[in-house]
Specification:
Blueprint: H1 7-21, E1 28-32, H2 39-49, E2 52-55, E3 72-76, H3 95-98, E4 99-103, H4 106-114, H5 119-128, H6 133-146, H7 155-164, H8 170-177, H9 186-198, H10 210-229, H11 252-259, H12 263-270, H13 277-280, H14 296-311, H15 315-332, H16 338-358, H17 367-372, H18 379-390, H19 404-435, H20 449-452, H21 454-457, E5 463-468, H22 473-488, E6 497-505, H23 512-518, E7 527-532, E8 535-540, E9 543-544, H24 547-556, E10 560-562, E11 573-578, H25 580-586, H26 592-614, E12 618-622, E13 628-629, E14 637-639, E15 647-648, E16 652-654, E17 665-667, E18 676-677, E19 680-682, E20 688-690, E21 700-701, H27 707-710, E22 711-719
Parallel strand pairs: 1-3, 1-4, 2-3, 5-11, 5-12, 7-18, 10-11, 14-20
Antiparallel strand pairs: 6-22, 7-8, 8-9, 12-22, 13-21, 15-16, 16-19, 17-19
Helix pairs in contact: 1-2, 1-4, 4-5, 5-7, 7-9, 8-11, 14-15, 15-16, 16-18, 16-19, 18-19, 22-26
């Protein structure tokens, strides 16, 4: 039953009716209120009627002062109660001849808003009566708020709000709050039971205890969602067989989750507890209910079946299903929820397992393409392993009986072991490629950069170089994506920037000394890496390229070199150098993977701001080398450097007598690299490194012949 009028309209009807009954030409309506809940409503009614309103501030006698003519309403903001006064006063006896006296409370006026001839309206008044002043104030607030706006509530909505303290839906109230702070007296319990059964929750019929009402309502709601998702209603007792009109209807609990500001707390009630285990056990296809985001029994069964598929090697199914479940829980709860995060990692686990299982199915005649292909390259394995570590151990936030707490860590360890096996096989493949003769002939090499990009570098436009050390290919691609996201947020009137990526090969050995020397101005044929007095050195015009020499070469070519974020940027040709990625890795800091991922984000913001603020026509992001990052449980084998080596590092040895019998893969004149003028043997096996004083057994290293160490991604940013 819906309200026929608002409270102001009901007040107007009451006042007009009293005026019409009056015998005087200047009638007065004396309105006694009870609690002063109607003052603004009477003011609005009088304003709409165009009649004079006088309000007693302290005593009704004030209403006699300053008489005016015409229709009037005299408002007294407290109930006339002569029985509580000394004597039997009959104030304003003359009102009987000039108007009428109205003694209506907000509860009485509510009855008139619904229609005083309706029995249900009087039942509402009984429900709204309260002896406790504080409770009565709350009821008056609800009546006032609900019956003065544009929407007219129903009797049931008002009754529900009065019982629950503001909710219009009794089911939603119980599902989100339990019993909360409402009274647990017999009358209130009966009212709540009536409200719930009136909404179709037959499961609470006969319940006389608040805890019983909460339990049964929640079981009913979970059953409703399971049925809505596709469970057979006949699996449930009759009183729990909620009717659903179709997929467009939302289950009650789903509606609550869509509106609540506390989804993570609700998850504790509905994903951490078994509700219908006996029903879930009898469901033939549990994954058909993947969109149902409640019941720990369903959640456990979904994980157990997912894990069984993983153990069977069906990674594609695992990937699709984990992604579905993650989307469901992310939509219904939030990203910080442990259940959603666990399934998000399950998605990463399945994707990584599939890539590790299939990476060698592609044609392997071009190891660079195999590794670096933007869509299918195995660089994505490195990226997935990094993500796996960064995402941590989300299952530790779940209840102890969730099966992921026993299985997920084992999968992480297993995949990291398989990752090392993949690196070893990839190293073997590189060895075969080099030993087959003349590798990498058709690829772009970093020492050719200033020649091949001369049009952009020497065009007279403003140019910025960002030389970031150790930016492994997967991190560089993350950085490119960060920059694309950044420029997409620039104002519409800002310049447009095109961001492109290209694959280059770093200088071998893939060490900082050689890599940065290659990225300096000068003719291609003037750069080489040679043995000088037993020391492997990068040379330009037969002169060793040191840090000072590199800066001198750049300065001579018109570049301003800076290592500061706020200094040197006034130049039109800036070369910015940053070494912190290498420092992070080689210092073996804890949380290394997290630090690397976070650093890429800050680099994206910094470079994006410089590009935007500096109005550069062209910018490049370059790097000297990549790196190998072994899982925690693996330590490289330290092997002795052979006597014929005169120079060495972690991953290479050099010397006049180094030959094919030396450890590693020999790079000599037959390799046709174009710049290497020495015999250098480079390790491709990820689990081997040469002993060298002062170097520890770090997880992070470079210098070798794995694609992770020397296949690089350069980023170009062009305005316009």
């Amino acid at each position: 039953m819906q309200a026929m009028h608002s409270l102001p309209d009901a007040a107007k009807d009451t006042i007009r009716r009293e005026f019409d009954r009056a015998e005087s030409d200047d009638p007065i309506v004396l309105w006694w209120d009870d609690g002063n809940y109607l003052e603004d409503i009477i003011q609005q009614a009088c304003a709409d009627l165009g009649v004079h309103l006088k309000i007693a501030e302290e005593t009704p006698l004030e209403l006699r002062a300053d008489p005016v003519g015409g229709e009037q309403v005299w408002y007294v903001p407290h109930l006339k109660a002569p029985e509580s006064a000394d004597g039997d006063y009959d104030w304003f006896r003359d009102v009987e001849h000039t108007g009428s006296e109205v003694a209506l409370s907000i509860e009485d006026l509510t009855v008139r808003a619904f229609g005083s001839d309706k029995l249900q309206a009087w039942e509402l008044k009984t429900a709204t009566e309260a002896d406790d002043p504080e409770k009565r104030r709350e009821i008056a607030r609800i009546l006032h708020d609900q019956l003065t706006g544009g929407q007219r509530p129903t009797l049931e909505q008002l009754r529900t709000q009065i019982v629950t303290g503001g909710y219009t839906d009794p089911i939603a109230f119980i599902l989100e709050n339990g019993w909360a702070d409402i009274e647990d007296d017999r009358q209130t319990v009966q009212q709540m039971t009536d409200l719930l059964t009136g909404e179709g929750v037959d499961a609470v019929a006969g319940e006389t205890d608040p805890n019983g009402i909460i339990t049964q309502t929640r079981r009913w709601a979970v059953a409703e969602w399971l049925i809505h998702a596709g469970a057979d209603p006949d699996l449930f007792p009759s009183e729990f067989r909620a009717e659903t009109a179709g997929s467009w209807d939302l289950p009650s609990l789903k509606s609550v989750l869509n509106k609540t500001g506390r989804p993570e707390r609700i998850a504790e009630d509905y994903l951490a507890n078994d509700v219908w285990p006996e029903v879930v056990d009898r469901i033939d296809d549990a994954w058909a209910l993947v969109d149902c985001a409640v019941d720990a029994a369903l959640e456990r069964r979904l994980w157990d079946e997912w894990h069984a598929d993983f153990e069977a090697g069906d990674y594609v199914t695992c990937l699709d299903r984990a992604d579905q479940r993650h989307d469901t829980l992310l939509t219904e709860y939030d990203a910080e929820n442990g259940w959603a995060q666990t399934w998000e990692q399950a998605t990463e686990v399945a994707r990584l397992a599939h890539r590790l299982d299939t990476w060698d199915e592609r044609a392997a005649d071009d190891v660079v393409s195999l590794y670096a292909d933007e869509d299918e390259g195995t660089w994505q394995i490195d990226n997935a392993v990094l993500n796996l570590v960064v995402s941590g151990e989300p299952e530790t936030d779940l209840p102890a009986d969730h099966p992921a707490t026993e299985t997920l860590d084992g999968l992480r360890v297993q995949l990291q072991s398989e990752y090392v096996e993949y690196l070893e096989e990839l190293g073997d493949l590189v060895s075969e490629t080099v030993e087959a003769g003349a590798p990498f002939v058709d690829d772009d090499h970093a020492y050719q950069f200033f020649t091949k990009e001369s049009d952009g570098l020497e065009s007279g436009q403003t140019v910025a170089l960002f030389v970031i050390d150790a930016l492994r290919l997967d991190l560089a691609r993350r950085l490119a994506d960060e920059l694309r996201e950044y420029v997409a947020t620039l104002p519409a009137d800002a310049p447009e920037f095109a961001i492109e990526e290209s694959v280059w090969l770093g200088t071998l050995p893939s060490e900082t000394e050689f890599g940065k020397a290659a990225l300096t101005p000068g003719e291609v044929q003037m750069f080489d890496v040679s043995l000088v007095d037993g020391d492997l050195q990068p040379l330009r015009n037969n002169r060793r390229v040191t840090t000072n020499r590199r800066e001198s070469l750049l300065d001579g070519d018109g570049w301003t070199v800076t290592r500061e974020e706020d200094d040197g940027w006034q130049s039109t040709r800036v070369a910015y150098y940053k070494n912190d990625l290498d420092n992070i890795g080689e210092k073996e800091l804890s949380d290394l993977e997290e630090l690397l991922a976070r650093r890429v984000e800050t680099l994206g913001e910094f470079i994006g701001e410089k590009i935007d603020q500096g109005e550069w026509d062209q910018a490049y992001i370059l790097t000297d080398h990549g790196f190998v990052l072994l899982p925690h449980q693996f330590t490289p084998e330290r092997i002795d450097r052979p006597a014929e080596a005169t120079d060495s590092s972690r991953r290479w040895i050099a010397g006049e007598d180094v030959d094919e019998d030396s450890p590693g893969i020999l790079l000599d004149s037959s390799s046709r690299l174009g710049y290497l003028d020495a015999n250098v043997s480079v390790l491709a096996n990820p689990l081997k490194r040469f002993r060298k004083q002062g170097l520890g057994d770090a997880r992070f290293y470079h210098g070798g012949l794995l694609p992770q160490e020397f296949v690089l991604n350069f980023i170009s940013i062009t305005q316009g």
